[in-house]
Design brief:
about 300 residues, alpha+beta, 2 domains, four-stranded antiparallel β-sheet, 13 helices, about 50% helix, about 10% strand
């Protein structure tokens, strides 16, 4: 994912050289050359996506674009922390590599999965989760948009719940290509391990407004950031609320930094009118986004999501 960026932008290439100093050549080569099947494994996906996202951010920075607010969805929160100056790139990479390993080990002990339920509101979802808790217990894992909510749990329970949700009026239920029941109580051991891990790293106050997953609200105290970040793997991602915090403050221009356009699609569901979302994942998209952001008439803030 990040190879093309590293070749197109010297700043992104320099970031990969810094990554090699942390992880070693062999591991970085494995991440850059990972195929689709390997990227389904969270221990590989997490450092690979983090690297590609940070490469895109560095490419934007080299073109004169920097964040004036930051938030990231799940793993993306680590990229947001680096963009906001809370963590150094090197420490973010070390933590993400360990996070991926810990989550993979935890997932291997309990065969879990996740599914996105589209078309039911949060109140309807909460009632349905409660009603089915005795037969197919799942947890709400991501509150992504008003009508897109992800559940997490043991694989068989997720499959059963997804079918019931469609019967109860959901338009679709989409199984996610993940290797575990992330953002659920099944990941609680990882939360405890991450809390101990963070004791060895320095977190500083963010340089720009930062919204965290666990609360869906602004956070600036490094101690709280560590606590919420440790809890994040076993608690729901409050993405809908997170984006509303920025919208409430008047932000109307957002940039999705890194692979894919999932967050751009979610923002269309959260704020269908009056909000611009640009994507910056591949080299040409980075260049095009930078040009649009640096136009004289472009004056709105652009939180890096």
């Amino acid at each position: 994912m990040g190879k093309a960026l590293a070749e197109a932008y010297p700043a992104a290439g320099a970031l990969y050289r810094r990554a090699r100093a942390v992880l070693g050549d062999r591991l970085v080569d494995g991440l850059v050359g990972a195929d689709r099947e390997e990227l389904m494994e969270t221990r590989v996906a997490q450092p690979a996506v983090f690297l590609a996202s940070m490469a895109a951010a560095e490419a934007l920075r080299s073109l004169g674009v920097s964040a004036v607010g930051a938030a990231g969805h799940s793993l993306g929160e680590y990229s947001a922390l680096v963009a906001a100056g809370v963590l150094t790139f090197e420490n973010g990479l070390r933590i993400v590599r360990e996070r991926g390993r810990l989550m993979a080990e935890c997932a291997a002990r309990a065969k879990g999965g996740m599914a996105a339920i589209i078309g039911l509101k949060i109140g309807e979802m909460r009632r349905l989760v409660e009603q089915t808790s005795g037969t197919c217990p799942v947890e709400i894992a991501n509150l992504n948009a008003p009508d897109q909510i992800v559940v997490s749990g043991i694989e068989e329970c997720v499959e059963t719940f997804a079918a019931i949700a469609v019967e109860r009026g959901a338009r679709r239920a989409v199984r996610l290509k993940v290797s575990g029941a992330f953002h659920s109580a099944l990941m609680s051991p990882v939360s405890e391990q991450l809390a101990r891990l963070f004791e060895h790293y320095e977190f500083t106050a963010p340089r720009v407004p930062l919204v965290c997953n666990v609360t869906g609200d602004y956070v600036s105290d490094p101690v709280e950031i560590k606590r919420f970040l440790a809890e994040q793997v076993s608690r729901p991602v409050q993405w809908h609320a997170s984006m509303n915090r920025f919208l409430d403050r008047g932000y109307r221009l957002f940039v999705e930094v890194g692979p894919g356009r999932v967050l751009k699609g979610l923002m269309k569901r959260i704020s269908p009118a009056g909000t611009r979302v640009l994507s910056a994942g591949r080299p040409e998209a980075v260049r095009r986004t930078a040009q649009e952001l640096l136009e004289p008439e472009c004056s709105s803030g652009a939180p890096a999501t």
